[in-house]
């Protein structure tokens, strides 16, 4: 989002006041880190028992971090993050930031705990990781540059693409956790349908997402996208997706975890590709 905003704003890089922009970028990144610390921390606190089965290496589950100290980090992040955003960024971003933290909280905290409902969990993760993060960063950079915000074809594309991708991640994230989720009666698509069906469905949805990206590049007016990275890049990533799926062994947890990691690799690869399209 940062790179795209700089590229799309005429004269932004050449005339930018880096002495002002860089400190603002730093505090923005700090706010994002606080937001992530709050969401991840609150999840580890309330999922301590499950994580001891599924992810015993996590700080709270392993005992490396006490629950008391985890609460200090979570509450400190809840306090610091919003203060930074309210002080340095527009009111719209503050509202979106608070909305994201609210969604992150109800994902883990009873009695709502949306993670227990696979549909609500998917919407929550897709909204935060897909839309709020991409839109928020792009809007913040535009505001810092003093440029008006406008939905460009590239921004619209990445918002659609990453929201769909985050929805798939919301479903596949439970594949490595299936044993612990069953033990604690956490209902997920993975526990209901099994690894093979979820992995197959997720691969199909991601493949269609890549088809959507390629179609967007083909059908767009000339000059909207750079054709080689838009078409060639997404074709290559789609081929990698299929190759990784063919390597999956549903009965091997090590293979399942590797498959899930590859999905994240593709997720971050899209951000790299986005700077080129």
Give a short synopsis of this structure.
It is built from 14 helices and no strands. With 277 residues, the protein is mainly α. The two termini are 13 Å apart.
Detailed description of the structure:
The protein is built from 14 helices and no strands. With 277 residues, the protein is mainly α. Helix 6 packs antiparallel against helix 7, helix 7 packs antiparallel against helix 8 and helix 9 runs antiparallel to helix 12. 35% of the residues are buried. The model has no long low-confidence stretch (mean pLDDT 89).
Q: What structural category do the secondary elements indicate?
A: mainly alpha
For the terminal residues, how far apart are their CA atoms? Answer: 13 Å
Question: What is the ordering of alpha helices and beta strands?
Answer: HHHHHHHHHHHHHH
- What percentage of residues falls in helices of 4 or more residues? over 70%
Low-confidence regions: none
Q: Could you give the count of β-strands?
A: 0
Topology (elements, then pairings):
Layout: H1 2-8, H2 12-15, H3 18-46, H4 48-54, H5 59-62, H6 67-88, H7 91-108, H8 118-145, H9 153-172, H10 178-183, H11 189-193, H12 195-219, H13 227-247, H14 253-274
Any descriptors?
79% helix
């Amino acid at each position: 989002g940062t790179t795209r905003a700089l590229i799309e704003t005429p004269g932004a890089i050449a005339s930018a006041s880096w002495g002002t922009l860089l400190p603002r970028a730093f505090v923005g990144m700090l706010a994002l880190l606080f937001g992530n610390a709050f969401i991840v921390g609150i999840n580890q606190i309330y999922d301590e028992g499950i994580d001891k089965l599924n992810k015993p290496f996590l700080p709270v589950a392993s005992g490396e971090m006490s629950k008391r100290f985890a609460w200090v980090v979570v509450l400190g992040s809840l306090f610091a993050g919003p203060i930074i955003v309210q002080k340095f960024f527009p009111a719209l971003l503050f509202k979106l930031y608070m909305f994201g933290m609210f969604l992150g909280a109800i994902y883990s905290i009873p009695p709502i705990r949306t993670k227990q409902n696979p549909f609500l969990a998917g919407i929550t993760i897709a909204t935060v990781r897909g839309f709020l993060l991409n839109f928020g960063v792009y809007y913040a950079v535009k505001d810092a540059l003093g440029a008006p915000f406008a939905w460009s074809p590239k921004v619209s594309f990445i918002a659609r693409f990453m929201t769909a991708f985050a929805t798939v991640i919301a479903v596949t994230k439970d594949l490595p956790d299936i044993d612990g989720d069953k033990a604690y009666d956490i209902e997920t698509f993975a526990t209901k349908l099994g690894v093979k069906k979820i992995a197959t469905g997720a691969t199909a949805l991601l493949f269609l997402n890549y088809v959507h990206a390629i179609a967007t590049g083909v059908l767009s007016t000339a000059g909207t996208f750079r054709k080689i990275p838009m078409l060639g890049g997404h074709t290559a990533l789609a081929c990698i997706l299929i190759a990784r799926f063919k390597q999956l062994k549903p009965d091997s947890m090590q293979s399942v975890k590797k498959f899930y990691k590859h999905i994240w690799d593709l997720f971050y690869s899209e951000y790299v590709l986005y700077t080129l399209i």
